[in-house]
Amino acid sequence: MKHTVPALALLVALASCGGPSSDQAKTEEKKEAAVSAGNTFAIDTATTTVDWRATHKGGMAPRFGTIKVTNGSLTVENGAVAAGNFDVDLNTLAVDPASITEKDKKPADLEGHLKSPDFFDVAKHPLAKFVITGVAPYDSTKQKSLLPGATNLISGNLTLKDSTLNITFPAQIIVNGNDVSANAKFVIDRSAWGIHYKTEGSPENWVISKDVEIGFTLKAVKK
């Protein structure tokens, strides 16, 4: 059987990763933001973390790191998260040195490349934004999730560069009297937001995974 270059890259990626480890976020058109109701909880940017992971060279070179949340809030009504939003500062995008295995490369090189117009064009679009459009209970009899302990399905508008799409993914949310904690891990397709290296069909773009895994551990405290 004759495979195209993209197909070969996909086969290598799947072989090296051993299959998916996170849920694929459902992606749709932008939706109306959820109405804020109840008590406001400020996101603790010191303890909230956002992780990212992608692959290069057909899955043979994982790349991963972190990005910082700069501000945001949630509203809680009747013991459940009703709405919220937060900003992610792409200027803080960092590459974990452990993900750089080539002797002639440094984490700063990849950080600069990802922040350049080749990818996120951080000079023009410094913030990624997430605005909740809906929070629903997670029903394990109707949905299957790779996230242990999933309690909810979160939908929200994710803005990357100048494009906004709605994504839905499982999350674990715990609401206490004075704080909220949430965690999730899901996969988005960067090309849906028009993020390509060189051109969409170029060989250089083929060997970089379109799938990007996003993970977050969020903490919020009642105002």
TrEMBL record:
Recorded hits in Gene3D superfamilies, A to Z, give: Lipid/polyisoprenoid-binding, YceI-like
Q: Entry's Pfam families?
A: YceI (PF04264)
Record keywords: Signal
- In this protein, which residues make up the domain named Lipid/polyisoprenoid-binding YceI-like? 40-221
| Family matches, as InterPro entries | Lipid/polyisoprenoid-bd_YceI, TTHA0802/YceI-like_sf
SUPFAM superfamilies with a match to the protein in the record: YceI-like
Annotated coiled-coil positions are none
Signal peptide annotation: 1-25
SMART domains noted in UniProt: YceI
Q: Which domain of life is it from?
A: Bacteria
Question: What protein is this chain from?
Answer: Polyisoprenoid-binding protein YceI
Which species does this protein come from? Answer: Chitinophaga dinghuensis
**Organism ancestry:** Bacteria, Pseudomonadati, Bacteroidota, Chitinophagia, Chitinophagales
